[in-house]
Design brief:
Blueprint (H helix, E strand, L loop, with lengths): L9 H11 L2 H9 L2 E8 L8 E3 L4 E3 L14 E7 L17 E7 L8 E5 L2 E4 L3 E7 L5 E3 L11 E10 L6 H7 L4 H7 L6 H9 L7 E2 L10 H10 L8 H7 L3 E7 L13 E6 L1 H5 L7 E5 L2
Antiparallel strand pairs: 1-10, 1-11, 2-4, 2-10, 3-9, 4-5, 5-8, 6-7, 11-12, 12-13, 13-14
Helix pairs in contact: 1-2, 1-5, 6-7
Length: 294
């Protein structure tokens, strides 16, 4: 039995692909399914694996995470890897330790500008950071003046199946190998509507994911990470952009969440995206942060 056979939703995703895509394209998409851990509000008596909001347990002596402009980031979530089946994921996460996620929304600093290029200032971009706390590290529950505070929500975790979005680099490469008619179907974005609607109907909300594929609100988060890494807006069809995008994978997605009073723009999501080699080496400071909303 494979890992995806243990998930409650893989059969439904396969059914959607078979019903809405040409057979060869459906087979291609299904082969790309990957496991993720969905984080949801824990029921009473259920083992918790982390939290949304509340206060983080930061390593003693570590400064509070800040934005590039020197503003304190709000604590979004903590994830205890030792309480999750991370070995069933296809990303090389540590077996223990804690991921702490921080974010600051530009709306908290409406009068601030950030100089991306001289001489044109633009609004301060969203800032996010991931901090990895190894098991056994001495920590203290902390708060920080000026940092956003969200109500604490205990989290439980469950293994699920996730599929690539229509523009994901892995699907993009696989589609290139399809017969002409199937490739033409998959490269026409208007053909995605029924498929995406059906997948959305089968997606449990909110979408808090560890590993697997991100569920982007806009375009592929891996492509956005590639743009960040390359330091330029290469044209979308540029092969260099797609080669770089295939080096990145979703680490964590944190959705807007009413229970935690988290609203990222207009029902958006926060994404931390990394290269697998950096994950394996616990270089979580190398994560790219991406914000998307409708």
């Amino acid at each position: 039995m494979g890992v995806l056979d243990l998930t409650p939703n893989a059969a439904g995703l396969i059914e959607v692909a078979r019903a809405t895509l040409p057979p060869a394209a459906a087979d291609t998409w299904i082969r790309l399914l990957r496991p993720a851990i969905r984080l949801r509000r824990a029921e009473v008596g259920e083992q918790t694996v982390g939290q949304l909001g509340g206060s983080p347990a930061l390593p003693d002596g570590m400064p509070w995470p800040q934005s590039p402009a020197g503003r304190p980031l709000g604590f979004v979530a903590g994830i205890d890897l030792s309480r999750l089946p991370v070995g069933r994921l296809d990303v090389p996460l540590p077996a223990d330790g804690t991921l702490l996620l921080f974010y600051r929304d530009p709306s908290e600093d409406p009068d601030e500008v950030f100089w991306i290029s001289d001489p044109v200032p633009v609004a301060q971009p969203p800032a996010g950071r991931v901090v990895f706390v190894p098991a056994g590290t001495a920590t203290t529950l902390r708060t920080e003046p000026g940092a956003a505070v969200y109500p604490e929500v205990p989290l439980a975790g469950e293994l699920i199946a996730t599929g690539p979005d229509w523009e994901h680099p892995a699907l993009h490469r696989a589609v290139a190998q399809l017969p002409d008619a199937d490739r033409e179907f998959m490269t026409d974005a208007s053909n995605s509507d029924e498929f995406l609607d059906e997948v959305s109907d089968r997606t449990e909300m909110p979408r808090h994911y560890l590993g697997g594929y991100a569920d982007p609100v806009q375009g592929s988060v891996e492509v956005e990470a590639a743009w960040q890494h390359l330091g330029s807006r290469l044209p979308y069809p540029d092969p260099e952009l797609w080669d770089q995008a295939r080096l990145w994978t979703s680490l964590v997605q944190i959705d807007s969440d009413d229970d935690a009073e988290m609203m990222w723009g207009d029902c958006g999501s926060l994404y931390w995206v990394m290269r697998p080699d950096d994950i394996a080496a616990a270089r979580f400071e190398a994560a790219a942060f991406i914000f998307q909303c409708s």
